[in-house]
Design a protein that fits this description.
This protein has 618 residues and is an alpha/beta fold. Helices cover 33% and strands 20% of the residues. It has three domains: 155 residues, Flavodoxin domain (Rossmann fold), CATH 3.40.50.360; 161 residues, NADPH-cytochrome p450 Reductase, Chain A, domain 3, CATH 1.20.990; 154 residues, Rossmann fold. α9 packs antiparallel against α10 and α19 crosses α20. The longest helix is centred in the first third of the chain and has 18 residues. It is globular and about 75 Å long.
Length: 618
Amino acid sequence: MEKKKMVVILYASQTGNAMDAAERIGREAGRRGCRVSLLSIDQFDPTSLPYEDNMIFVVSTTGQGDTPDPMKAFWKHLLQRNLNHHWLKGVHYAVFGLGDSGYQKYNFVAKKLDKRLSDLGAVAIIERGLGDDQHPSGYEGALDPWMSSLWNTLYKYNPDLLPRGPNFTIANLMDQPKFVITYHEADGLHSHCSMVTDLECLEMKIEGARSMPLGKVSHEKTRPDAFLTVINNYSLCEDGSVTDVRHLEFEAISSSIYYDVGDVLAVLPEQSPVAVDAFVKRCNINPESYVTIQHRDTAHEVSKVPVRLKDFVKFNMDIASASPRRYLFEVMSFFAAAPHEKERLQYFASAEGRDDLYEYNKKERRTVLEVLEDFPSVQMPFEWLVQLVPQLNTRAFSISSSCSAHPNQVHLTVKTVSWTTPFKRKRVGLCSSWLARLAPEQRVQIPVWFSKGSLPSPPPSLPLILVGPGTGCAPFRGFVEERALQSKSRPTAPVIFFFGCRNEKHDFLYKTFWESHLKSQGVLSEDMGGGFYVAFSRDQAKKVYVQHKMRERSTRIWNLLSEGAAIYVAGSSDKMPADVFSTFGEIICKESGVSSEASVRWLRTLEKAGKYHVEAWS
């Protein structure tokens, strides 16, 4: 098969950032006269890889070094043993990764993809680029210089791909929007809703709106698994705490539910009706019109039945929480009627204006609605808004209950998020602040999805070493509840738990719960082989963390590990997971007498055996 004189760009995205980066690379290539094919990696047949000449991979890393869902089948194909070292001979490639250096396995997917492609005979035309969420400009801080090098290298390697040189760009090139909107009479979903219950109608509206995923996370289910309502909501912190952490109990109202301990609940937050109305008014769109939306380059109609435009905005467009991408400012500049607004938007969209855009947009966490209101002369067609407004993402929470202990209920431990921007603007987390305000008497219907997290449910015979400072204790509350039930009917293995918080008085989360399981014959009691060890970091002059408490129980930890215990770690992704990993390494060195390198290998073997699990969040 003859190789194609074009660049194929494949992206593997979990939340949409890798797709955004890939689209940007594709636009910049197109502006240089380069033919481009841009695809999600799950839309590409991996058996055709040897017949491609120029490949660019843009891949994200999720969780603790995990492969994004759309990439799993592709990666499995690359790992086949029958593929030899010459399989990709003649293929030239580049890899750009998106990750977060706060995580231990930073950009792990990009690194292993780069190595595997090279092992199969492909040649890298440029050193892999690694975008970092911790960079002041996010992943774009690495993407901009990487792209500049990419065009120069690509031109040297094959001038035909960039016929007018790497620095030539077509000025003021305006793409067409990716989606086509068709307007309908008030039928379809409207008529269906008149024949079903209010809850079924709500489910249809959400599924109808979210079946058009704005090209972001097509692997997500659009129909909710269940609807919940709050039956209890109270603060776990005393007055004087610097944070507000709440315990919320939900009851299923749509159907019976089941989940395992360690599972994750995704919640679709409710946007402010005031913000939705303001967006509709600012964009001069008719909220009562019905629409279907399809991709311009295919005949595939994504919305199966017409959806009311206001419902589409409410359930699928993040208008007042997420910050927009840089491309929004570029497109807005084409529709700005006021010259001073056009000039400022063009500057923001340029490489020179990247730092100022970061100050204006990301650092202040301006929302799409705020940006549109700051540039009143801009009137954009709804097709562009559909493409450029970030999708309203679900928020994931570790479940903090056992379904066996609380049938048809789900409990969450939610820290309300709030901060002040550099310009002293108060910001709050959309989902956490909404959940914190919910009261049982409101009977709000909350759409949710259940999924497996990074903490698999352990069998009762497995000894457990749990480490969960702060809200990291949430999944382990469910673990302890489940183990307590199991212990009533069969022998169970020991559980020890290392917890940490700032102050014993102010934020000792679930204090009475842990103490109840410390009593005689309790899961965490010494007579059951258990243990509960708390680090109060701010109750003394020198800070004390969970790592300090772990070192104090070094022999106990080693004995449990020698008995085949599994390690579970949950909490902040900042430094904690790496510090805890290092502490386990120190303990193995001390208790077994092996070298530090051997202790790390020991822990890596534990990971591969499915006995070292981490669930971390930023």
